[in-house]
Amino acid sequence: MSETTAAVLDCHDVTVRFGDVVALSNVSVSFASGAIHAVVGQNGAGKTTFARVIAGLIDPDEGSVRISGRDMPKGSVNDARRAGVELVHQSFALPPSFTVAEAMQFGGSGGKLYTRSQLERRWQAHLDALNINVKAGQRIRDLPVESQQSVEIARALVTDAKLLILDEPTAVLSPEGAEKLFQRIRHLKSAGVTIILILHKIREVLAIADTVSVLRGGKLVEGPVACSGIDADKLSELIIGPSARPLDEDDRAALTGSASSLHTHVGVSGKDGAAPPILDMKSVSSAPDGDGPPLTDVSLAIRPGEIVGVAGVEGNGQRTLVRALSALADVESGTIALDGRQVTTLPLQGRRIAGLRVIPFERNVEGLSLTSSLWENWSARKLLQGSLLSWIRPSALRSECKSALDAWDVRYATVAQRAGSLSGGNAQKVILSREMDEDARLIIAAQPTRGLDIGATAFVWNALDQARRRNCGILLISSDLDEIMDICDRVVVMLSGRIAGTFEPPYDIARIGAAMTGVTHDR
Ligand SMILES: Nc1ncnc2c1ncn2[C@@H]1O[C@H](COP(=O)(O)OP(=O)(O)OP(=O)(O)O)[C@@H](O)[C@H]1O
């Protein structure tokens, strides 16, 4: 651990309530300075609430917070920042139309006026000092997600941060991106910054953190304990708790990295290689649409009962692929057929009636209306599929919604609550419960387990497997190569809007990785 063991953070008996929900219950914890502290727990366990209390964004109902030995006035962001606390949120908050320099200035102390070139010079020096490879004049929206995150971190470090909190920083990163982030975090630690990391993946916790603390149902059930004294199995037990359904051995191994059974998927027995494809894309090219490179000559078939994975560094056309399949991108040439029927020019509603379901990349923007109730969000699929409004009975929908959310173990108070009040993982589960229904024929799942806890991730894998057994076709787009290799029957790699390689089990991670970076093409 660190040379110094003085506490940078002391929480005493912190309780936070949202109406009837107790998000944090009498949490008392102390974190030593100069170390990397992981905080883990299931979706809705209270991790983000904990981070927001420390950053002064939430005023706890009870309890107190001390930073570097000083009592913090309750719920004061400015006092927390003055004490050196900076929080990088789960979803990025940089204004997309700003340049990097403008975004950095926005996060700085402000005051003096600068010309554009002065501003850029000022922040370029800061970025260079942190070894962040981004040009200060670039617009945020033109940056890949990994660079946006680096800019968020750089912005948090504009002030003299002593305690940096990163809320699920790896959820948006590729494995290489996560490794780069970890290097940056180790570097910050050696410069004396204390880091709190909210993480879901146990293997990441054990790879980077000095200590780990576990929240369950708003209570601190363990920690901080030294990571050197705990193993993956024990940690997953602490997270899930004694009453939860146990994970099966394969899922546990894949989720915790505790065994060598990774990447052994050998195809599914129910797959019928001779059956006509559910999805048949032939030579599809799309117009540029500002959301990644256009598709160029993409051909892809998915048969009943088949899970096809799309691997690739983010920003290589995966979003355009989802948009083309959802009738949101302009297809210039080529054809798309669903169950033998041409749908190339059919709007989304018609495709949904034909059995298309979409779990979108951005759950808060494309997947949910945050200001609408849970049952309204859940019922949206009926409207999307063109049911007549007069047929819709709100009371029946509310009870259907309740059963579906309970089956997915969503943590919520009432189906009338706003979707925006759910924790990130629970919001994702609402979309999954809506899109993975019995009538689905083709499920496009974009990052379906991003931000989910280990129990929920296993649940999603199981739900995808059930859908496959019902002979659905599934297109799984994920930046988690382990996930792709564990559950897909075939993997295609996207690079610059093209299919750059097709791979079948047993997978060779080195060859897939090479195709992702364009080192080699096809097998
Ligand atoms: N603004 C809010 N209004 C109402 N309830 C809230 C609000 N914010 C959080 N909650 C509830 O508090 C509980 C803890 O939520 P929190 O976001 O802290 O969990 P989390 O551990 O970060 O979950 P995840 O891993 O899904 O992000 C959840 O039950 C959540 O629904």
TrEMBL record:
Transmembrane spans: none
Start and end residues of each stretch annotated as Disordered: 264-295
Molecular functions (GO terms): ATP binding; ATP hydrolysis activity
Keyword ATP-binding belongs to the record: yes
Keyword entries, A-Z: ATP-binding, Nucleotide-binding
Domain ABC transporter: 9-242, 279-521
InterPro entries on file: AAA+_ATPase, ABC_carbohydrate_import_ATPase, ABC_transporter-like_ATP-bd, ABC_transporter-like_CS, P-loop_NTPase
Family label: Belongs to the ABC transporter superfamily.
Database matches in PANTHER family: CARBOHYDRATE TRANSPORT ATP-BINDING PROTEIN MG119-RELATED, GUANOSINE IMPORT ATP-BINDING PROTEIN NUPO
Protein name: ATP-binding cassette domain-containing protein
